[in-house]
Amino acid sequence: MSSLAPPIACTESMAPILSTRGMKALARPPLLRCAVFENQYSESNPQGLINIGTAENASPPSLSPPVHVTLGPYLGPPDVSLMTDWLINFFATKQLPMTYSDFTYGTALGGSTRLFAALRHLTSNYFDARIPIEREHVIAGSGCGSVIDLLVSCIADAGDGILVSKPFYNGFSASFECRNEVVPVGVELREGFEAGVEAIAAFEEALVQSELNGVQIRAVMLCNPNNPLGFCYSKEVLLAYCKFVEKHNLHLIVDEIYALSTFATPDNPTAQPFVSILSLDTLRDAGCQPSRIHAIYGSSKDWSSNGLRIGALISQANPDLHAAMESSCLLMKISSAADILWSGLLLDPVGLPTYINLNRALLAESYARAVSFLKAHSIPYRLSNAGHFIFIDLRRHLPSHNAQGKLLATPLEQEEELAARFNRGGIIVARGTAYCMPVPGWFRLTFTLRKDYFELALQRLEKCLGLAPTVSVAFKSTEDVKDRTKVVIEGVQQLSL
């Protein structure tokens, strides 16, 4: 006689359900589209999409054999475009060692003693930090988005709001809303005056209106240098925001992830240079308690390393906030391997200044090429001196009908169709409305690609917009690479003198 239990009769049952949060996430589109990853252009996939929408200072790999040239004591990139290959060669040459603690939970929950030392060195030498960074000032995590997410959970409740000027980086919405259900309250500013003290009046109005609507404002978020507009805030304006948050008992969060991605350009010779919030005496100069001030920084943008996933909060006078965030920061702890790589570069006495100078030189060169293209086609754009992108005005190129001949009734529909046309033409360009730009028709054009890939992207852009062709594409030979590398290195050496 069998001891097996009788089979359970199959009955119809309900499917397992997601939580309310899960259902909201199900309806929310991903921050990055899957197509960006699944069909990228390369020499082996010439029909793939060239991404001139995502802010990455990187270039796809070449199928050609690597060409190594001397760049200071390190091997240089096969095309010096812009910095990815330099980093690969730097890390391969340095062979940074791991220690016993790297195989444990490490030397601190919110980072490591090595990372704290690296951030102290960087901010003291390149951010003019007024107070040197200490361990108790930093909470590091797996990317700035994760750090902002945890920060917001500790300073705001569900339904509260954070003021941020339009247009703004769309990742802020994800960090505010996804899990915290905190509302990004966009502040519309007069075009061309986003960087001035005039903005404070609009922030005052937005705060009052939000609270009348039942949304309690808890903080102001600045992106300095600005994404997507590419400008830097002056000391005067930063202090004006400090006075504003003190007046209304708010926090001030300043995302400085593009701090060192500034560049000189004759296109914008009087551009405001970067001023870090860490360099200011907010109490003396604005009557603002330093406990309100929180800087965000990470490896992604200045260091061409979106994939390392390292972000850090630097808040130098709020031990309660630090303790609150440390209680759960293990959930976003960075890997020792990523820590070793970034800290190793930041602490390298030759590699650090070499990287920064070379990066700025290449940013200036790439920006100049993009501006030349825009001027050749009379495409209006916002002057910039920071970041990986230019905000361009394509309103006169918005189509009146879609690909099926249907009349498009609104500018927003027309912008959607132009973006779709770009995709069909083999490029991705970021839509301005994705950054809460109030007026449809603006796009964010990323120029930090390998040179020949960028030229091909511009050629495709011309075809999509029906413009007269001005771009010819020639993939670089080994000799071209060496010649261009030599020119750039000589320029960097001059910059370093």
CA-based gyration radius: 24 Å
**Beta-strand residue fraction:** 5-15%
Spatial shape? globular
Helices, by number, come to 15
State the share of residues found in helices, binned by percent.
25-40%
Poorly predicted regions are: 60-81, 477-497
What is the CA-CA span between the terminal residues? 92 Å
Beta strands, count: 14
Largest sheet: 7 strands, mixed
Strand sequence of the main sheet, in spatial order? 4-10-9-8-7-5-6
The helix-and-strand class reads alpha/beta
Give the integer mean of the pLDDT values. 89
What is the N-to-C order of secondary-structure elements (H for helix, E for strand)? Answer: HHEEEHHEHEHEHEHEHEEHHHEHEEEHH
Q: Can I get a quick summary?
A:
The chain is an alpha/beta fold and 497 residues long.
Can you walk me through this structure?
The chain is globular. The strands form four sheets. Strands 4-10-9-8-7-5-6 form a seven-stranded mixed β-sheet, sandwiched between helices. It has a three-stranded antiparallel β-sheet with strand order 11-14-13, covered by helices on one side. It has a two-stranded parallel sheet with strand order 1-12. Helix 12 (351-376) packs across helix 15. It contains 15 helices and 14 strands. By secondary structure, it is an alpha/beta fold. It is 37% helix and 12% strand.
What is this structure's SSE topology?
Elements: H1 20-27, H2 34-38, E1 50-51, E2 69-71, E3 74-76, H3 84-94, H4 113-126, E4 138-141, H5 144-155, E5 161-165, H6 171-177, E6 183-187, H7 199-212, E7 217-223, H8 235-247, E8 251-255, H9 282-286, E9 293-298, E10 311-314, H10 319-326, H11 336-346, H12 351-376, E11 389-393, H13 411-424, E12 427-428, E13 430-431, E14 442-446, H14 451-465, H15 478-496
Parallel strand pairs: 1-12, 5-6, 5-7, 7-8, 8-9
Antiparallel strand pairs: 2-3, 4-10, 9-10, 11-14, 13-14
